[in-house]
Design a protein that fits this description.
Blueprint: E1 4-14, E2 20-30, E3 36-41, E4 49-54, H1 55-61, E5 71-76, E6 83-90, E7 93-100, H2 101-114, H3 126-144
Antiparallel strand pairs: 1-2, 1-7, 2-3, 3-4, 5-6, 6-7
C-alpha cells in the first residue's frame, strides 16, 4: 500500500538582493518513490512548478552545503538550524528560495517514520518500478533515434 507525507511551508522566493516574497511550497514524500521528495512551488500568476530530488540531499543540505547540478541546498547564515537556501537551476536560469530549517526537519522526521532513511530499498515494489521506468526511458530513446 502506498503511503505519503505532505506539508506546506512558506518560503521566501529571492528574486534579487532587494526583492523577495513569501510563497507556499508543498512538500511531498510518497512510498511509491521512496528515494525522492517533491517540492511544488506556487508562484503568483504562474502554474505550480514541481521539482523532485533526493530526500538525502534535503537531509544533508540543512546541515552543510551540498548538491551537484540543478539542485543545491545549503544552510544560510551563522546561526545553526536557522534557514536553508534551495537553488534550482535550469540552464542559465536559476531560482533561489529560503526556508526555515525547522519545518523541513519536521517534514523529514515524518518521512523517516514512514520509511527510515537507508531503508528505501526494502519496499517490495521498488525494483519493479525501477525496471518499468528504465524500460520507458530506453523505449523513448529507441523511438527518438
Amino acid at each position: 500500500m502506498r503511503e505519503s507525507v505532505q506539508a506546506e511551508v512558506m518560503m521566501s522566493f529571492l528574486v534579487s538582493e532587494e526583492l523577495s516574497f513569501r510563497i507556499p511550497v508543498e512538500l511531498r514524500y510518497d512510498t511509491g518513490d521512496p528515494y525522492a521528495v517533491r517540492l511544488t512551488f506556487h508562484l503568483p500568476g504562474d502554474a505550480p512548478v514541481t521539482w523532485a530530488f533526493s530526500r538525502e540531499l534535503l537531509v544533508d543540505g540543512i546541515n552543510e552545503p551540498c548538491g551537484d547540478g540543478d539542485v543545491r541546498i545549503a544552510p544560510d547564515g551563522p546561526e545553526p538550524l536557522a534557514d536553508a537556501v534551495i537553488r534550482l537551476q535550469v540552464g542559465a536560469d536559476q531560482a533561489l528560495f529560503r526556508s526555515g530549517i525547522a519545518p523541513l526537519i519536521a517534514f523529514l522526521d515524518r518521512t523517516d517514520k514512514l520509511v527510515p532513511l537507508g531503508q528505501e530499498r526494502a519496499l517490495a515494489d521498488f525494483e519493479r518500478h525501477l525496471d518499468d521506468a528504465l524500460d520507458r526511458i530506453l523505449a523513448q530513446e529507441r523511438n527518438a533515434g
